[in-house]
Amino acid sequence: MNAMADKSLKEATSELGDTSRMLLDQLASCVVLLDENRNILVLNTAAETLLEMSAARIGGNDLAQVIDLDDTLDSLLIQALEKNYPVVKRELDVVLRSGQRYCLDLTVSPINIGKAAHLLLEFTPVDRLNAISEDEHMWQAQASLRQIIRGLAHEVKNPLGGIRGAAQLLARELDAPTLREYTDVIMEEVDRLRALVDRLLGPRERLHPRLVNIHEVLERVKQLIEVESAGTISVARDYDPSLPEFNADPDQLTQVILNISRNAVQALQGEGKITFRTRAKRQYTLGGQRHKLVCAVDIIDPGPGIPEEILPQLFLPMVSSRARGAGLGLSIAQMIANRHGGLIQCQSEPGDTCFTLLIPMEG
Questions:
Q1: Do 226 and 344 fall within a single domain?
Q2: What is the total count of domains within the chain?
Q3: What is the dihedral of CA 7, 12, 17, 19, to 10 degrees?
């Protein structure tokens, strides 16, 4: 950071004030203030998340040290400064120096602070807007599905109880043991169907939230997975140690991560490496509600991937990519995540499948 940029940074920070800073941090769009030399003076929380750097680390640095200033972006900045008029670019492809790519809507507005010209950049990730819409649709679909399943379960369990009762009465009237074997089969199959319906309904016990360290939950699952696989599966950790504790039911979160991890083990055919990764997401929207801070847990495996035609229905009951799979583990995991106000997402291609558990950390 040069002396001039350092002075501009201090002046801009002073002018901004605590109240304005707080308002900026509440915005979902990314806001970056540049001086006329393109040094970064101010950025809000959403911009810190997008650029993958804190304000303390990035402040005063040239924008080109963070973003690849290609001809398109460079000309937009020049145009806004020279014409002293806002310019807008839709669906601009931006590459960070880290290699991360984004599709963004960008507005560049020239503003004067004192006698100096500055540029105000507003980024809105197009991919994230599409994801919010998809997440909200998934949330609503899951809620509707749960209502349908509850109604169906009620209609199925009532006649099953009658069938089982009739089989018990019939068994008492039969003298031959070979005939009672048939009534035993009827009762066993009825019990199996009732258990299946209960599993479709998902966990019905109440949540017992308390302060939870998500890494303790992950360590518990790691131990279970490595013991179950007799050491043929290893679990790598990529944890964010700054994540705070938050209120959740640790047993049910363990069930969510365990269900996903067991799917990964099966995808790897019982041998290989799974990665657990944790990150914080700021100003993140889940189910139509915006949260100040969200915990993101990634469970990653290098397996063959999930068939593209299954991905949209992956969290529905009875959907499985395995011939003998019951298709309930991920459905139950999604239900538990929803009960915590969260959501599970999945991205998959051959060699890289990532399930992401998103849980609000406030409240």
A1: yes
A2: 3
A3: -150
Q: What is the pLDDT along the chain (363 residues), one digit of tens a residue?
A: 455 545 554 555 555 566 676 777 777 778 888 888 888 888 888 888 777 777 777 777 888 888 887 888 888 888 888 888 898 888 888 888 777 788 888 888 998 887 788 999 888 877 654 555 555 666 666 666 666 666 666 667 778 778 888 888 888 888 777 777 888 888 888 887 777 776 666 666 678 899 999 999 999 999 999 988 888 999 999 999 999 999 999 998 998 999 999 999 999 988 899 999 999 887 777 766 778 889 999 999 999 998 888 877 787 765 555 544 445 778 888 888 888 888 898 889 999 999 999 999 975
Q: How far apart are CA 175 and CA 21, in angstroms?
A: 84
* Closest among 147, 278, 262 to 217, alpha carbons compared: 278
- Which backbone phi and psi does 159 adopt, to 5 degrees? -65, -30
Print the domain residue range for 148. 130-201
* Same-domain check for residues 192 and 136: yes
Nearest to 192 by CA among 146, 156, 166: 156
Structure tokens at 262: 């067991």
- 225 and 281 together in one domain: yes
CA distances in angstroms from 65 to 7, 9, 40, 61, 199, listed in the order given: 19, 16, 10, 7, 52
The residue to which tokens 């069938």 are assigned? 163
Q: Does 155 lie in the same domain as 66?
A: no
CATH code at position 73 = 3.30.450.20
Place of tokens 């540049």: 34
Helices (H) and strands (E) in the chain, counts: 9, 12
State the amino acid at position 81 in one-letter form: L
Task: Identify whether the C-beta of residue 62 lies closer than 8 Å to the C-beta of residue 38.
Answer: yes
